[in-house]
Amino acid sequence: MKxxxxxxxxxxxxxxxxxxxxxxxxxxxxxxxxxxxxxxxxSYSALRDAAQEGALYGSINPTNFDGITQRIRQxxxxxxxxxxxxxxxxxxxxxxxxxxxxxxxxxxxxxxMVSYDYPIxxxxxxxxxxxxxxxxxxxxxxxxxxxxxx
Length: 150
What we know:
alpha+beta
């Protein structure tokens, strides 16, 4: 009687190869998703830094919206090109009055918002999320430091 062991070992090798292919596909998809979300977080960090730069400048020059916008757009070009006005949106608003002090019991402040839609690179993630971009918004509010209210 002949032994069936060589045939069983051959089938087990094929099974292992199929298991490797399936699990490797899943692991690579998870890794690609983690990298994509990491890059989105890195982009958010750049937006937050730019909004902070604009709010800091605006706390000293609260009426110079063009100067605030210029500081934001020049603060970085990687990983997000902040100078691209078609992709990065800037909103500036003064809370209270544009001077140091208080208005109706609350401190005057300047608020800067920078928005960007991060394009998803990983395939199929857009299908899962229902869109091909991740909307990122960074909002920073700083107290107005000058000029002094009269």
